[in-house]
Design a protein that fits this description.
By secondary structure, the protein is α/β, with parallel strands linked by helices. It is built from twelve helices and 13 strands. The chain has helices at residues 29-32, 79-94, 102-112, 120-141, 145-148, 166-171, 188-206, 222-232, 249-258, 273-281, 298-310, 321-329, and strands at 4-12, 59-66, 71-77, 157-162, 176-180, 211-215, 239-241, 264-267, 287-288, 314-315, 337-340, 367-368, 386-387. The strands form two sheets. Strands 4, 5, 6, 7, 8, 9, 10, 11 and 12 form a nine-stranded mixed beta sheet that branches. It has a four-stranded antiparallel beta sheet with strand order 3-2-1-13. The protein starts with a strand and ends in a 5-residue tail after the last strand. The protein binds magnesium ion (MG). The site of magnesium ion has 6 residues, from loops.
C-alpha cells in the first residue's frame, strides 16, 4: 500500500463558498428568509442569519498526495481556523501513513486534539482530512467509495428537498420537503400563528401523502416544541428537526416521552463522534442526522451508523453532497437522504456544493444515483481562487 507524502489545506477567497452552505450572495433564501435561530431573541439578529455571522468560517479544502503523486481531496466547512489545524497539527499523523490506515489516522487526530476539540471546528477539520484520504484510497484502488464501504443497498437513493418551496420540490419528484421554521419562542403567539399558517399553506399545496417537516435549527425549547407538535397534528408533519440546542439532552428525552402523536424527533447535524451520537441515541430520538463533513468523516460515520442500527434508528445525513450520497446508498439505516435546494428561490436544482466541483451530480426525478468513478467521483474546480495560507 502506498504511503501519503503530503497534506495541504486551502481556503477560498470569494463570496460563494459552496461547502459552507450559508455563504451565498444576493437574494438567496438561505440568508434572506426569516429563519428561527438561537440568536432570534436579539432583535438585531432576527432578520438574517448572516447578520450574526453564520457564514463567517467559509470552506476548507484538504488535499492529500500519495508517494506516487496520486491525489485525493475533500471539502468541508471550517475555513482558516480548520486549515490551520490541518497543517499545523493533524498533518503529522497523516504523512508517511499507508493510505488504507483510515482508522489509526482518525484515532490519532481525535485523541491528539481531545484537550481542545471533540466537537465543532476540530471535527470539521478531522472530517476534511478523513474524507480526503478515502478519496485518495479510491483513486489508488480505482474504486468508488460506495463500493469500498460495502456496496449498494439500493440502486437509486430517494431524496427529500430542504428549502422554502416543498410544493415545487414535489413537482420535481422529491419524496418530501423540509421547511425552515421562521419564528421561535421570542416571537410569542404572533410568530407561532405564522409558523402554523406556513405549515397549513404548504400542506394544502402539496396534498396528502407527501413528507413534510420543519427544521428548527436549535431555536426552540421543549414547551414550544410540544405546542408546535400538538398544533401540527392535523397536518401530518413527518418530523420536527433539531428543535432544541444540541446540549439539551434532557429536553430531547422529554420530547420523546411527551409528544402527543407519533411525529418523529430528529436531530444531530451539530453533533459529533460516536460518543456524541451515543448520548443522543440514549435520549430516544427517532432519527439522527450527522453531517458527513462535520461529524468526524466517513470513518467515524460508519461507527455512528452501526450504533444507530443497534438502536433500530435511522441515519438521514445532513447535506454533505457526494460525501452523503456514497454513504447513503451503501447504508442499511438510510432509506432516503437530504438534498439542499441551493438555487436562490429553491425553484431549480443546482449542485449542493456549487461551484466547488466540475461534475457534482444532482438528483433526477427525486432520486440520486452514484457512478463507478473512483473515490467520491468528483473533480475539484481548480479555476476557483484556492489559497494555501502561509503560517510563518
Ligand atoms: Mg437542519
Amino acid at each position: 500500500m502506498k504511503k501519503i507524502k503530503d497534506v495541504r489545506a486551502f481556503v477560498l477567497n470569494m463570496d460563494e463558498q459552496g461547502a459552507d452552505y450559508h455563504a451565498r450572495t444576493g437574494d438567496h433564501w438561505i440568508n434572506k428568509t426569516v429563519i428561527a435561530t438561537p440568536m432570534s431573541k436579539y432583535p438585531a439578529y432576527q432578520k438574517t442569519r448572516t447578520s450574526f455571522g453564520i457564514d463567517v468560517l467559509g470552506t476548507l479544502l484538504v488535499e492529500v498526495e500519495a508517494e506516487d503523486g496520486t491525489t485525493g481531496f475533500s471539502v468541508t466547512t471550517g475555513g482558516l481556523p480548520a486549515a490551520y489545524m490541518v497543517e499545523k497539527h493533524f498533518k503529522r499523523f497523516i504523512v508517511d501513513q499507508p493510505v488504507c490506515n483510515v482508522e489509526v489516522m482518525f484515532d490519532q487526530m481525535y485523541n491528539a486534539s481531545m484537550y481542545y476539540g471533540r466537537k465543532g471546528i476540530t471535527l470539521n477539520a478531522i472530517s476534511g482530512v478523513d474524507c480526503a484520504v478515502w478519496d485518495l484510497l479510491g483513486q489508488l484502488r480505482q474504486e468508488p467509495v460506495w463500493s469500498m464501504i460495502g456496496g449498494k443497498m439500493r440502486e437509486r437513493q430517494p431524496m427529500y428537498a430542504t428549502g422554502p418551496r416543498p410544493d415545487l420540490a414535489k413537482e420535481m419528484g422529491f419524496i418530501g420537503g423540509k421547511l425552515p421554521l421562521p419564528y421561535g419562542p421570542s416571537h410569542l403567539n404572533e410568530g407561532f400563528t405564522e409558523n402554523l399558517e406556513l405549515a397549513r399553506e404548504m400542506r394544502s399545496r402539496c396534498g396528502d401523502n407527501f413528507l413534510l417537516a420543519f427544521d428548527c435549527w436549535m431555536a426552540l425549547d421543549t414547551a414550544y416544541t410540544l405546542q408546535l407538535i400538538r398544533s401540527l397534528d392535523p397536518l401530518d408533519f413527518y418530523w420536527i428537526e433539531e428543535s432544541l440546542p444540541p446540549d439539551d439532552l434532557d429536553g430531547y428525552r422529554q420530547l420523546v416521552m411527551e409528544r402527543s402523536y407519533p411525529i418523529r424527533i430528529s436531530t444531530g447535524e451539530h453533533e459529533y463522534s460516536r460518543w456524541g451520537f451515543k448520548r443522543l441515541l440514549d435520549t430516544g430520538v427517532d432519527i439522527i442526522q450527522p453531517d458527513v463533513n462535520w461529524c468526524g468523516g466517513l470513518t467515524e460515520l460508519l461507527k455512528i451508523k452501526a450504533l444507530a442500527s443497534a438502536y433500530n434508528k435511522w441515519v438521514i445525513p445532513h447535506g454533505s453532497s457526494v460525501y452523503s450520497y456514497h454513504f447513503s446508498i451503501a447504508s442499511d439505516a438510510t432509506p432516503f437522504s437530504e438534498f439542499l435546494m441551493m438555487s436562490p428561490k429553491a425553484d431549480t436544482i443546482i449542485p449542493m456544493f456549487s461551484p466547488l466541483f466540475e461534475n457534482e451530480p444532482v438528483p433526477k426525478d427525486g432520486h440520486m444515483t452514484v457512478t463507478d468513478e473512483p473515490g467520491f467521483g468528483v473533480k475539484l474546480n481548480r479555476n476557483l481562487n484556492w489559497i494555501r495560507p502561509n503560517y510563518e
